[in-house]
Amino acid sequence: MLKGEYKVGVLGATGTVGQRFILHLHNHPFFKLVALGASSRSAGKAYRDVTKWKQVKQIPESVQRMQVEECTVEHFQQCDIVFSGLDHDVAGPIEDALRNAHVAVFSNAKNYRRDPLVPLVVPLINTSHYSVLPAQQKSLGLTKGYIVANANCSTTALVVPLAALEKAFGPLEQVQATTLQAISGSGYPGLPSLDILDNVVPYIGSEEDKMEWETYKILGGVSAQNDAFDYHAQSPLTVSATCNRVPVIDGHTVCAGVKFASKVKPSPQQVMEALSAYTCDAQHVGAPSAPQQVITVHQEQDRPQPRLDRDHQNGAGVNVGRVRGDALFDIKFVVLANNVQIGAATSSVMNAEVAALQGYV
Amino acid sequence: MLKGEYKVGVLGATGTVGQRFILHLHNHPFFKLVALGASSRSAGKAYRDVTKWKQVKQIPESVQRMQVEECTVEHFQQCDIVFSGLDHDVAGPIEDALRNAHVAVFSNAKNYRRDPLVPLVVPLINTSHYSVLPAQQKSLGLTKGYIVANANCSTTALVVPLAALEKAFGPLEQVQATTLQAISGSGYPGLPSLDILDNVVPYIGSEEDKMEWETYKILGGVSAQNDAFDYHAQSPLTVSATCNRVPVIDGHTVCAGVKFASKVKPSPQQVMEALSAYTCDAQHVGAPSAPQQVITVHQEQDRPQPRLDRDHQNGAGVNVGRVRGDALFDIKFVVLANNVQIGAATSSVMNAEVAALQGYV
Amino acid sequence: MLKGEYKVGVLGATGTVGQRFILHLHNHPFFKLVALGASSRSAGKAYRDVTKWKQVKQIPESVQRMQVEECTVEHFQQCDIVFSGLDHDVAGPIEDALRNAHVAVFSNAKNYRRDPLVPLVVPLINTSHYSVLPAQQKSLGLTKGYIVANANCSTTALVVPLAALEKAFGPLEQVQATTLQAISGSGYPGLPSLDILDNVVPYIGSEEDKMEWETYKILGGVSAQNDAFDYHAQSPLTVSATCNRVPVIDGHTVCAGVKFASKVKPSPQQVMEALSAYTCDAQHVGAPSAPQQVITVHQEQDRPQPRLDRDHQNGAGVNVGRVRGDALFDIKFVVLANNVQIGAATSSVMNAEVAALQGYV
Amino acid sequence: MLKGEYKVGVLGATGTVGQRFILHLHNHPFFKLVALGASSRSAGKAYRDVTKWKQVKQIPESVQRMQVEECTVEHFQQCDIVFSGLDHDVAGPIEDALRNAHVAVFSNAKNYRRDPLVPLVVPLINTSHYSVLPAQQKSLGLTKGYIVANANCSTTALVVPLAALEKAFGPLEQVQATTLQAISGSGYPGLPSLDILDNVVPYIGSEEDKMEWETYKILGGVSAQNDAFDYHAQSPLTVSATCNRVPVIDGHTVCAGVKFASKVKPSPQQVMEALSAYTCDAQHVGAPSAPQQVITVHQEQDRPQPRLDRDHQNGAGVNVGRVRGDALFDIKFVVLANNVQIGAATSSVMNAEVAALQGYV
């Protein structure tokens, strides 16, 4: 179903999310990186000269001398797909303008996540929400071009096992989640070192609200007319999230408890089997960035751990451990997801891969 | 009610808990430190020569040359009170022998916490449980001597605000707690640095069980005959605890959600006022180690934080912040307690102070 | 020689250095804190409302409601002494204007450190350089008011033992110093956490040059006419500094090697004795902030360590350990100094105390 | 020159060095991993069941079920080559017994490093020292089997650029080195977390002596008769090392200053070019583990940094930055080497690869 090679661009290419987009895209089987966008300060210069590169992998040879452009329609309308790693304070109008210029925009920014016609997609779960894209286009009088948002990093960690549980055992009724989030989630420069060394910060601005709200949208369905999301309306779900920042570089840990709507409760063993067996469309359509195993279930009682498990499968799947029963909830477990991979750039790229493979681009 | 000065000893004096006992006791208004106990390897030598001192404060001058003794009845029966910082693998028989030798033993070890006649006491909450001490003595045919245990460090952090809430608003029905615990909680050498730098360990052996079980005992009452604990039997309470280790030196953070039994729910504002207003017997009887304020309620949305708040009031009180409503529970909040102070040695010393001031020694 | 109480002000009062000035001054025996200066954004408001307080000790009660003023002559000319915790990009003209308004300015900023008539003073070493103050005033046509600078934090750590060695054994000829500097040295927000967690940054902008240059000025003498510094000219000294940032909150560690000019070399034992015996004018005149022991010499082979030793004597002295011989240099040793205490605010305050006690204010 | 596939074994296979040997060897082009040795406690069991695996990469499938054997001649004499990751307290007799059984032993332990007939080899420098192996065998009456040691991890970091400098500009006269060493260098469990979080330990037992002594042996030559090492005797060299432990997981940073024997001094630019141009025999003979670039010279003033640069080329080369002139030495620079790769297992494997390719096995 692929239409050959797709021209892709990256907005916010010099930032940390942009740097990760570049590492994902520079050698991609069917995406060809043709445009890099940054602020006017960097425009017209070679990428390597305007970027404070902060990745363990080196700047790809092919990208070092690429000229950086301003993030305008003029420079990016040649692209089939644009990935946006822009900060939310500038992302809105630029992404909208590119959509109007018939570009498929896959955004890591939060600006359009709550838009009633923008799919909020975790590629390991709900690429089926793309069915709403025609309605999005219709509402704007477009025949091409749209915006797809990926979820907040901590939401992504939580919802993958939740989706697998709902698929296997029916709707959830209650979810309690407490996060221990990595500092890379706050971007760069992000959190000052004096605030987090030998410390925990028990607050991340608006993160708890995002985790609750995004979960309803992602785990919910789509209207029969494919013109709206139902926000899990078919079965009431209550999510309570508590978010903390901890001195970990990459990898969000989420301690979760869940209660099923059904009176028949699965055992921890059944839960582990269901999580291990879970597969997703990104795998079925052959998305190159899809992990072999969506959810890796750990048997050791002290795993997953961010430092040891975050890079498994290039961080494209999630890790679950400590699946056990509970007196308050039905099941408790721990999730670990790589916030800078599946929690950010990897999600956007995989979303676009699925869109391309399904003919949405 | 004080009977003058009390002779006190410290078991496990060279370990980290023992070192903190010494810092608390070397200058105490009515406890006189007369005996230091350690393994036979150290016995007969000067304290400073057998101790790898790991505290920020220096070894008190008066203690440096004190001779370390073996932890036997012979060396400690001269004491009115003995504080035990022993590891649980050796604490049991030694503490029992001293009790039989008419010594009041205040132990930080876990060995007797579940004993049906040993009070498990957080001095900011339930020194009223001392009313069971005569029954303990009677059961052993003793007229003097007993064992009082203090709680596990993570339990201590959690139960102080819970006790304040029950005092103000009646019994709790559900408690959910997720901890982010400091490395000092695992003792010394404790956690290898390779296991925790840039990492989270989502498991602490038997800690979750302890937090649940100890909470019932501490928050519960005493039988009318003062010969048993009721483990919160008058009103069913379910506690669900999840425990994590994080790269923080001192200070356990606990993210908690609570549901009240009463249909009338307090507002976050009422909860904050009740927590601030809470006082305890240790304050009323004038225990020298009691904090001025049992619970310090923080208004800033990102507090309490371990590094900034753990040493407030020498770590003798607890800190609460982020009091807010919740869709799943009635109220959520964050607690911070200094695990090596009120979570360990400070508790034992304050317990003994109250016991002395109330005539139990 | 004190003229009663001195009115003092703090410039940059809301920053981290300013916060430490406040902790030093709010309860001072003869300095009365009367004015707090910050940017125009904060002016007119209560201190506690415009300050993101980041200290372990709480905001002093007496300071919480003090009104913050702009850093202008108008608001600070009432002061006998002004302490400057300003950033160097704004410190220059403000400090100069206050000097012209007859105020004694003790500055932690670097702007005037290289001024040929401004004493660069580490209070544990060279308060004798105050003899140049009349020449500074004369050059500006002033009868009152002057600027005294304290040294860079890493310089301070190094020069204290060097001064003690020169006092005991005559001039040094070569000094090699490699630092492991704490993150608090970069201010707040300072170093991003992503740059330093699980990392070392082997570079601190212009720090090596400062350590070399400042050492010559501080260890050097004053001309016979008290109108110039001699920059150690009486005996050639070469300093080679290498500076690193490490993930430590407070406390700069410096590994040093020294070669004496004299052919007769002291033994490590003699060096340790000389360091321990060293005293300074700040002690002799009774400066309240002076440490009891200027240099604490550690015998344990793995000390000093930042976390364990930085707060000894409130960080007002320095720690030296691992004094040993060497094949390349005569003596090698390790210094630890608390960069936010003796390396910053404590130095300024102690400098002012000595100035007041010696009649310079 | 290869004689086909070589059977190899790993001693100490369950430890951290052993785990890294396994990751290097499980897929090797001409080494076939046939035997895993550990303590008698683990013998007879499947590898995955007796190993607390602590690597980011997972246990190779092919190794998981391999049976662990005791480290005896019986189990390892089938091997052409044995790699030893044993602790030094047990390594000596086992390695000696295997040598006597005609096995080529490549050891990471320190036991035979000072042996006058055992080559101490950093594979990026002095595989030419293998010319002494016949003398080693002759002294023991052997025709096959020998021991080759690799260097201490901090020595390895330092000597690679030193060798390149001597090759380009002639002998060095003085070397000053201060290290900032990663915690993984102390093994597992190694350093307790309480000792190193927010801290520096300015001492590593016997490390400074090792760095000085090993440098002489490695940089030195071999006697004309190939029966002795000359320990750099042809030109006197003085090394002064100072060693520190810092809270970094992997990657030793070394700040070095060097003085050349020659009166003609190279410029920093010439030094950078010489370091970049340096090649070694491991590259020339095509050792599979040899890095493409032995020394990567960084131009950015704040590089190399452990977290960003340690994994470049799988840690098989070293990184140098901040090459600059100096008033005390001729040239100063910073080296970073991955202590668990080129500083340990990678060295041993590369040493064996060269030996095999040169016909020594």
Automatic annotation (TrEMBL), chains A, B, C, D:
It holds the Pfam family Semialdhyde_dhC. Its EC number is 1.2.1.11. It comes from the Eukaryota. PROSITE patterns: ASD (PS01103). The keyword Plastid does not apply. One of its GO terms (biological process) is threonine biosynthetic process. CDD domains: ASADH_C_arch_fung_like (cd18130), ScASADH_like_N (cd02315). Residues 299-313 have a biased composition (Basic and acidic residues). The active site is at C153 (acyl-thioester intermediate), H252 (proton acceptor). Residues 294-317 are annotated as: Disordered. Pathway: Amino-acid biosynthesis; L-methionine biosynthesis via de novo pathway; L-homoserine from L-aspartate: step 2/3; Amino-acid biosynthesis; L-threonine biosynthesis; L-threonine from L-aspartate: step 2/5. It catalyses: L-aspartate 4-semialdehyde + phosphate + NADP(+) = 4-phospho-L-aspartate + NADPH + H(+). Catalyzes the NADPH-dependent formation of L-aspartate 4-semialdehyde (L-ASA) by the reductive dephosphorylation of 4-phospho-L-aspartate. Mediates the second step in the biosynthesis of amino acids that derive from aspartate (the aspartate family of amino acids), including methioinine and threonine, the latter of which is a precursor to isoleucine. This is Aspartate-semialdehyde dehydrogenase.
